[in-house]
Amino acid sequence: MDPALHELIATGRPSDEVAVLLRLDHGVVPEGARIVAQFDAIATARVARDALTRVHDAGGVRSVKAPRLYGPDWIPVPEDVDTADIRPSDE
Q1: How far apart are CA 45 and CA 38, in angstroms?
Q2: Per residue in 3-28, pLDDT tens?
Q3: Dist. CA 64–CA 6, nearest whole Å
Q4: pTM of the predicted model as reported, rounded to 2 decimal places
Q5: CA end-to-end distance (rounded Å), the chain
Q6: Where along the chain do its domains lie?
Q7: Helices (H), the chain
Q8: Which of 69, 52, 46, 57 lies closest to 5, judged by CA?
Q9: pLDDT at res. 82
Q10: What is the mean predicted confidence (pLDDT) over 28-55?
Q11: Confidence (pLDDT) at 39
Q12: What pLDDT digit, counting tens, does each position of 51-87 carry?
């Protein structure tokens, strides 16, 4: 099981519903998971913390991942931005 998933299980109340990313066999929805969006075998779902291990071990579930936030590793500050570099969005 993914270490980030262990951390997700440990931080919060067992009854809290958390977001996860699932890789599923086609047509399979594990008991305890509420599918929010799905594209082919990949789905975002909500699962109670205390059900994460059962969902992970369920038949038809290939993978369960905790959500991760991605963002820029550099954010420009106003003095770093040259106005000559700013273009209208239609260019």
Answers
A1: 9
A2: 999 998 899 899 999 999 999 997 78
A3: 11
A4: 0.71
A5: 46
A6: 3-68
A7: 3-10, 52-57
A8: 52
A9: 60
A10: 94
A11: 93
A12: 999 999 999 999 999 988 877 776 666 665 565 655 6
Q: What is the pLDDT of residue 71?
A: 76
- Provide the CATH topology of domain 3-68: Alpha-Beta Plaits (3.30.70)
Q: How far apart are CA 60 and CA 25, in angstroms?
A: 5
- DSSP 8-state symbol, 79: G
What's at 55, amino acid-wise?
Answer: V
Nearest CA-CA partner of 53 in 34, 69, 31, 37: 31
The tokens for 32 are 């305890």
For 65, the token pair is: 């991942």
Contact criterion met (CB below 8 Å) for 68 and 21: no
The strand pair at 33-39 and 42-48 is best described as antiparallel
Cα–Cα distance between 43 and 34 in angstroms, integer?
10
Beta bridge mates, 63: 23
